[in-house]
Amino acid sequence: MKINFKHFLGLVFALFVQIAVAQEITVTGKVTDQGGIPIPGANIIAKGTKESTQTDFDGNFKIKVAPKQTLVISFIGMNTVEVPASVTMTIQLKDASNQLEAVVVVGYGTQSKKKLTDNIARVTAKDIQQIPVSSVQNALVGKLAGVQITQTNGKVEGGISIRVRGAASISAGKEPLYVLDGIPLITSNESSNGAPTNPLLTLSTNEIESIDVLKDASSAAIYGARGANGVVIITTKKGKEGKGTFSINLSQGVSQATHKRKWLNAKQYVALFTEASINGTGDAAEAEGIFDFLAQGTDWRKGEIDSDWQDTAFQDGFNTDADFAVSGGDANTKYFFAGAYNNTTGIINSNALERVTARTNVSHKVSDRFNVGMNLSFSRSQIDRVQDDNSFTTPLQAVAQSPLSPIRLADGTANPNTLYANYLLAIDNSFWKTLVRRITGKVYGELKIIPSLKVNSDFAYDLMSQTEDNWNGRNTPFQSTDGDVFASSVNIENYIYSNYLSFDKTFGEKHTINAVAGMEFNKYNRRYQEVTSIYFPNDGFHTIDGGAEVNGGAGNETDYTFVSQFGRLNYSYDNKYIFKASIRRDGSSRFGKNNRFGTFPAFSAGWIVSEEGFLKDNKIVSFLKFKGSWGKLGNAELGNFASRQLYKPNSYNLKTGLSFDQAGNPNLTWEKSTQIDYGLEVGFFDRINIEADYYKKNTDGLLFEVPLALSSGATTINKNIGKIESSGFEFTLNTTNIATENFKWNTSFNITTNNTEVVSLPNNNSDIITTFTINRVGENVSSFYLQEYAGVNPINGDALYYKNSKKADGTIDRSTTNDYSEAERVIAGNPFPTLMTGLTNTVSYKGIDLSFTFQGEWGASIYNSAGIYQSVAADYFDNQTADQLNRWQKPGDITNVPQARLYGGNGTSASTRFLDKADFVRLRNLTIGYTLPSKAVKDLGMTSVRIYGTGVNLLTFTNYTGYDPEARRDDTGIGEEFYSAPPARTIALGVNINF
């Protein structure tokens, strides 16, 4: 029989196809959360292949795979699981946010929380997304134990103060180190108008996967000389294997000030100042003459004008947010693309922000041993700014104007004849625009040498470019020429080379070792230029070349370098006994030539008691761990040339020369912080998790300007002298209150205490006294130091003060006097809170979700340095706060407000009269949402649609009498308010759509 060869090949091919098909199985299954609720959009991948699918609206999926294939199931916010394939499957995913197996970022690597011996606070994307704030830091408030976050005031670009476990310095930098995907970020304030800007405005929350705050020395020591103030590690989102996803979020919000103060109206103003004029000068003529000037031809006696200047300074704010994200990938390539737009009109007149951000994160598996990737982001932020709080032309100082003065004239122009400069003249005839462009990026490669050993090589780059343009037309207040223009430009770049080895292996099933060792080179460069021109032909010219004369200019360039070696070793035995050691050696060009390098070691240990036989199967105690750590850190934020002997150029009559400017100190080095931490973590019933810690950090070698003899040619020299100590307790409670198929309720509560005390100071522990504060051994850092106000003499209305002088027998004289010069200053308050709390509840019922966060602070005080103008019973013609109506008027009156005496100086000197407790509890944010039923959106090709409403700073409970217990002056000072704007109360509506 003759065989047809073609037919034979066809038969063989068909046979192989049948065999291949026979080796495949069809897997059907369902993916749910722990409560049994279906998870739509979960990714299911056949590991090592390109086969993938997603769950439908009911959590169901179907996929064809080989019989022994492993399936990888993942979903955002859930722990990824790997399970062997079977014909029918039900897979439960656990919430990753509060699970012991959640992975935290620890610097040059990751670690499971269960085996963590450090103290690290963490928030994830779902904790901060869809909160309508312009800065990432504001979204963290109240969510992290031991971390205080305060926005300077209500300006949209306002600086942010973050203190991790209290202040670790007095005169050096106090802000934490920010690290974005391994890039130490530029965070210097580059503002030229006297008020700081927030350099992290360039980040959008939609690109962030998690934020880990390294609080103790064991976690932060891997960053050595820059970790003393804590480290904030920001990790951006990355693509995951599976079908591509697309999400879009749109929201629109309105804002108002959290609080407005009450000021005198025109009738009250006339009555108070008339009385003050009679008491202070003998008759009413002085006041009436000023009233005539202020009224500008209007009839003040009949109340023709009653201006509300505060109402002009504030405005209704608006914010628009739109962002999108695309992610996905396969076994070899993963991608994440995101973009965001924010347009915020602030609550202060003429203050606004417009920001655009974009991000691309891509990784590719070149081979089984070699991976490469790139993270790249761009942002553009344009800010319409107003002047700093200490400027007459800043809007909030308008409250000092008299209600008798017209705000604008009949022709609509701003009234130029007011008590102080009318800020509206500046609004109408000038602008201050700041434009910030930023690029951050990293390219990296990872080579697996052997299964347990890999090498990473990273190059990271951060470029911040900022321009400022300040135009002042000829009608701007205090303008002495026909207009002027100021323009500045600053370019800052920071690039980092990192190379490190990572080893991870388990020996004999019980011994697990994870080690990292590497080196890093960090180069920073800053170049600044500014120029001013004057004499413009008209107000239509707003740039430098429009002026007839360039009358000023400046420029400088500076850089610094860090070179570092680092290592970390983690060892665990039988998953019960955990040890960790790390070390970093940093060298920097910032410091004296005799102290260029420093070494920063840290050690920690932990015991997971719940893994012991006597507790392992306990039904009550589900987890128990004790831990402790010790380490040394540094603070390198001393400026680039603090150790150098410097000379500066001096010119006279077109001749130039050099003059001595700063004495050098070759021994100057970073401030050193030694920290200890003891803690425990305990879980009950797999529903209640408690974490409690005690910490203490001692900072030595504080930087101070020590006086020199005048014969030296310099007045001071920078030296490392002085010590402070911070200590406190942290307590975090996370509970799963209800977890059923339809109803979930989780609670997170944290409470922190902190006390920061001065231990030693230069010059034999001499007090360091500023205008309102003091640093004294044994007292809180920067304590308020003021004469103590004693109220009002009920007989004659005089302001009284406690003498507080020391008697011959050593006791304190607590008698009162109306002579301010007889009263001694005393320590009267603390500018920093000693107790902080946060409470977050998350509730979901079927398609409805609700979350809210309360924040509280106690122990801090605020000194209103504008009080000597605002609340002094008509000593000047500034409008007064309404409480001044409760003044002393006749013998026997019991009040805290002295008699009104124009120019009398009755109680107008700096004292505790203007110091107020800043304790508060605030509903920081509240969000309620509704996810449409899957059937309603399925036909539109959508995975989910959620409609939500959210609010920020909705309620505040406080006895503070100023604008807001979180508002601080933005030009200088510690713990002061000075015409400082309150934060915004914002309500927004939005929709989130996923495909």
From TrEMBL:
InterPro entries: Beta-barrel_TonB, Beta-barrel_TonB_sf, CarboxyPept-like_regulatory, Plug_dom, Plug_dom_sf, TonB-dep_OMP_SusC/RagA, TonB-dep_OMP_SusC/RagA_CS, TonB-dep_rcpt-like. GO terms for biological process: siderophore transmembrane transport. It is found in: Cell outer membrane. Keywords: Cell outer membrane, Membrane, Receptor, Signal, TonB box, Transmembrane, Transmembrane beta strand, Transport. Residues 364-947 form the TonB-dependent receptor-like beta-barrel domain. SUPFAM superfamilies: Carboxypeptidase regulatory domain-like (SSF49464), Porins (SSF56935). It is a multi-pass membrane protein. It comes from the Bacteria. GO terms for cellular component: cell outer membrane. One of its GO terms (molecular function) is siderophore uptake transmembrane transporter activity. Residues 1-22 form the signal peptide. It holds the Pfam family Plug. Its main location: membrane. Residues 113-231 form the TonB-dependent receptor plug domain. Belongs to the TonB-dependent receptor family. This is TonB-dependent receptor.
